[in-house]
Structure formats: C-alpha cells, structure tokens
Amino acid sequence: MSFDFDPGRYGIDPARAKELAEAVAASQSDRTETQAVKQARQAVEAAEAHLHKVTMSRGADGRSTYSFEDRSQAERDLAALKKALNTAQNDAARKWREDRDAAAKKEVDDRRAAEQAAFAKEAEASHKEAYHRSYTEAGGTGEQFEKAWPGIWADHLQREATARVENTMAQMRARYGGSF
User: Fold this and answer.
1) H or E, element range at 148
2) Considering the entire predicted model, what is its pTM?
3) Of 15, 22, 16, 17, which Cα lies nearest the Cα of 1?
4) How far apart are CA 127 and CA 144, in angstroms?
5) What own/partner pairs with CB < 8 Å and gap ≥ 24 does 45-51 have?
6) What's the sign of the alpha-carbon dihedral 58, 60, 63, 66?
7) Which end of the chain is more exposed for a tag (fewer CB within 10 A), N or C?
8) Do residues 36 and 22 lie in contact, with contact meaning Cβ atoms separated by under 8 Å?
9) In the chain, what are the domain boundaries?
C-alpha cells in the first residue's frame, strides 16, 4: 500500500503508519481471499491475457489475425469472468461478516450465560442461607436441611415462576381489558 501524503507531516510515525496500512491490507485480503476468489482472479487474468492477445495479434500484412467475433467473444468472456470474480469476492466478504457476527453473538451469549449462572448461584446461596436459618429455628438439623434443600429450592423456583406468570397475566388483563 502506498501513501499519497507524508505521514510525518501529520505527527504520525511513518514506520508505524506503513505497518498499520500493511496490517489493514492483510486483514482485508484475509477476508476475501478464498479458493473461489483465487480461481476467479486467475480466470480473469487469463481472459485479460487472451483479450490482449486477440487485440494485439497482427499478421505479416499488419491485419488482425483474429476476427471481430473472436474479439467480441473475448470481451464477453472477460466481462462474465469479472462478474464472477465480483460475486466470489462478495460471497467471501459476506461469509467473513457472518462468521464475525456469529463469533460476536456467541461471545455475548456466553457472557450473558455466565452472568446469569453467577446471578443464579448468588440468589440460590442467599436463599439457602435464609431458608437454613428458618429451618434450624423450626427445629430441623443442618443435615436434614441439606438433604431437603434440592426440593425446597425447586418448590421456591416453581412458586416464583407461577407468581411471575400470574402477575404478567394480570397486567395484560388490565392493559387490554380481556381475559387471557
């Protein structure tokens, strides 16, 4: 990549500017240089060479050795191959964007899942502590509580979920004036 300006003039270290420009160019080529793009580019280069040959080829008498139809066909072939190259580049760029977006979504989903798991663990610990106090004050032992805890926690979660659904339904009835 070449620069049309003096990076030092703008307070940019020329070596660093060149390094960044090369990194950007490499990143962009990594995005779009799939096997299909390479093959399409090679086909375009071959078609350009053939068109040049058809255009420039002259016989001993100075006349073209190829007919007008040959040149027209070579031009059509080149246009079609350039279109195919453009399609391959667009497909590669789209695939790269889809992969990038999927990776970003996975990262967000993983982070959200970790946050939810941490929140659930914290909520369970705080509820467990409160239930443990109530259980032992009512005459139960710690061992009995630990044995009963999974059922107690499941019942608690079921009651919370039911209460949330009932609350949502009441809000919807109030808002829309119907029965749900």
Assistant:
1) helix 142-176
2) 0.52
3) 22
4) 17
5) 47/74, 47/77, 47/78, 47/81, 48/78, 50/74, 50/77, 50/78, 51/75, 51/77, 51/78
6) negative
7) C
8) no
9) 141-180
